[in-house]
Amino acid sequence: MSNSLYEVSVRRVFIGACAAAAMLTAVGANAASFMGKLNGVACASAGEECPTDKSDPHLSVEADFVLQTSDGKFYFLPNIARATKQHYATETVRIEGEKSPKFDMIAVDSMSVKRDGKFVKVWDPSSSDDAFLKLWSDPTKYHLGGDN
């Protein structure tokens, strides 16, 4: 019994769509709120808390920053730029997002920082888009091109 190329293609697309829907359902089930401090990944791996403050040299040498919860677990935040995480290092943050079922990683929907006892939203995916668009709207203004 021979299957036509069209039938095989349709079957593969259908199976792929079902697999993608199952993955999205599984990931969506992991959406949650996480609280902790932004800590350097090397320090978190060693069970230490650093940088200790905004003048600590660890800020410049850490490869990345992670959310470290009060129980000592830490989670990578891959869709937030390192510079943003560095800016809020040592501060208490609340992360809204979906934890990977496979890795210690959170796809962040928003990040809020505790200020005067309240959480203030400081990052979401659109803020990254806005900064990118502002930066590239006039490259010469930011010395990213041109003759200056």
Can you offer a commentary on this structure?
- The structure is a single chain.
- With 148 residues, this protein is an alpha+beta fold.
- It has one domain.
- A six-stranded antiparallel beta sheet has the order 3-2-1-4-5-6.
- A hairpin with a 5-residue loop joins strand 2 and strand 3.
- The radius of gyration is 21 Å and the shape is globular.
- About 15% of the residues have low confidence.
Work out the helicity level.
25-40%
Strand content: 25-35%
Determine the N-to-C terminus distance: 69 Å
- Give the oligomer, counting copies of the same chain as homo and different chains as hetero: single chain
Instruction: Count the beta strands.
Output: 6
pLDDT averaged over residues:
77
- Lateral strand order in the biggest sheet: 3-2-1-4-5-6
Please, how many helices?
5
Radius of gyration: 21 Å
Order of helices and strands: HEHHEEHEEEH
Q: Which residues sit in consecutive blocks of at least 5 with pLDDT less than 50?
A: 5-10, 12-27
Please, how many domains?
Answer: 1
Basic shape: globular
Main beta sheet strand tally, sense and closure? 6 strands, antiparallel
